[in-house]
Predict the 3D structure of the following.
Amino acid sequence: MSSFKCPFCNQLMSIDRSTKKSYSITFDDAYSNLGNKSIPQVKLTFYKCPNEECERHTLYVRGTADMQELDCCILPRFVYSNYPECVPEFIQQDYREACAIKDLSPKASATMARRCLQGMIRDFHGVKRNTLHQEIEALKNKIEGGLYDALMAMKSIGNVGAHPDVDVNLIVDIEQGEASKLIELIELLIDEWYIAREKRNALLLRLNEISDEKSNIVQTISKENS
C-alpha cells in the first residue's frame, strides 16, 4: 500500500478513499479529451491527514497547459519537512528556501540546495576547504561511492551558492523535477547524518542509563544481603 507524508505534521498516512481524492478537468470539461496534451488539462489531488491533531488538506496540481508540464503543490504553497533542533537552524533555513522556490525558480532552488550541502559538510563532518569540490573530495574515503558521485553531481548543478562571486555564469538551467531530486538528496543526508546520529546518541545514552539502574539495583541487593 502506498503512503504519503503530511507536509504539516510529517506523519505518514496510508492512501485510500478517506485520505486521497483526485479530479481531472479540461478547459472545456470534455473528459474524452483527457490524454491529449494539446488541450489544457489538470488533475487536482487532495490529501487529508488522518492525524486527529492535524487533519489538514494538501492539494497538488498536475497536468499540461500550452504544452508545458505542470507539477506543483498549491496547498501548502511549498512542501518541506520539519526537523528537530539537532539539525542546525542555518541548514534548515537554506533547505526551506530551496523548497520554497523550487516551483518558481528551479535554478535558484538548486543553488540553495548546493549551499545547504556545503553547510552540512562543514558542520557535520568538520571539513572546510576553499571550494565545495575540495570539501566533497575530502569525504571520498568516508562515504560510499554512490553518495560521493551524487554529491559531486549536486555541486555541478548548483554551481553558485555559498561563493557566488566565483563566476555567475556557472549556473546551469535545470527543470523542476531535477530541483526536486536535489531536495530529496538534502533530506536523505539530513536523515542519514543528523537524525541518525541523534537516534544513535539517544539509544546509547538510554543503554548507559539502564546499565546504571541495574548496577544500582545489584548494589542495593548486595548491601541488604550483607
Remarks:
- Confidence is low (pLDDT under 50) at residues 160-165.
